[in-house]
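2 proteins. here.
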Amino acid sequence: MARFDMSGLDGIIRDMQAMGQDTGPVADAMLMTGAEQVAEAWRRSAEEHELRDTGDMIASIGYPRKPSGIGSAKSIDIYPQGVDRKGVRNAEKAFILHYGTSKRPGTRWVDDADAYCEGTVVPAMEQIWNEFIETGRAPSSASGRGVGGGISVQRGK
């Protein structure tokens, strides 16, 4: 699916670079917090588009406990994980429901999810940054999922 890039973090990124210290843990916490916001928006959109059959796909929407990265660029993929009780890949179902087929129109439910979380992701990530500035230490976990990494939020696979 398409890439979802967050803008509005430029000032925070400049601040992190200017501090010249290891801000990796706080960046990790920020990314995980943003990922939880996006995953929740995906679940909400799937429900609003009435995409629930067994609920397996909606329940599987998530992200890894730790982001992937090359060098200093880190990202995290948010998408339906695994297979449903019939053995069908949840990501495949999400793709078909989003884009459609020749016999079924696409719902564009992921685009709606992105619109839902547009105003919540950056403020949630900024809150983690502000806590770091005030306390001088990164949160030990974000959203109860442990700490991952990065500054950008990606979706799709």
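next one coming up
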Amino acid sequence: MLLCDAVFLLYTFSKHLVREDPMGLVTGKEILAAAHQGGYAVGAFNINNLEILQGVAAGCVAMQSPLIIAVTEGALHYAGFAYIVAMARAASAAAPIPMALHLDHGRDHAIIDQCIRGGLPR
């Protein structure tokens, strides 16, 4: 399948999820359950800074596709936990698509605990 075909499928099957009002962060479980029921894929994009998040969010809004914002332990060390969470919350509050924040391949128990206690939707 070509990339443009995959993007078209994301657009076709996910546009029923788009709302006019901003949503705020939702859980990955909510996004994936809707995708499973609708038979479409959802992109998870690793971000390290505001500019990457803005670009990914703008692309997903343009395609009316849900977004899983993925962050690694390295991104949390680089940008800081509070900044990453604040950026994700700001992006989701401004966008009419479902967005989830996800710790990607977390191994450090202290970071995993910080994510759970610090408000990452489960």
